[in-house]
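User: Fold this; tokens only.

Assistant: Input:
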Amino acid sequence: MSATDSVGGSCLCGAVRFSVRVPTLWCAHCHCTMCQREHGAGYVTWFGAERAGFSLDAGAEDLVRYQSSAHGTRSFCGRCGSSLLCESTTHPDQVDVVLANMNAPIDRQPEMHVYYSDRAPWIDVRDDLPRLGGATGMEPITKE
């Protein structure tokens, strides 16, 4: 995969389609309670893409943005409900994308667990990836 390649993604119904140019910035499993509630899952795997390398290719009229915090929005398909993106004023040049919505592999695997202190009590993580948590969700913590 070269630095000028892009990978496509979409929602469940295919109404919203997008592409992301690689290289991506990071990839992590997020355990924050907002992600748990938005996705109905114990954690969600996101990756960061440069805003300049993100393209909304179809379905702009179906993309719904929800103001999930004072600094961020989460976007989903208004037809099928698929969660797709997270954008924040704390990193305005970046778009966070749900890895599971990509149509092919990106240029990296998950590299860490973030907001691990907030993980669901029924989640049993058995990998060796770094665990970050604490007040910011990004502070190193020891493994169980």
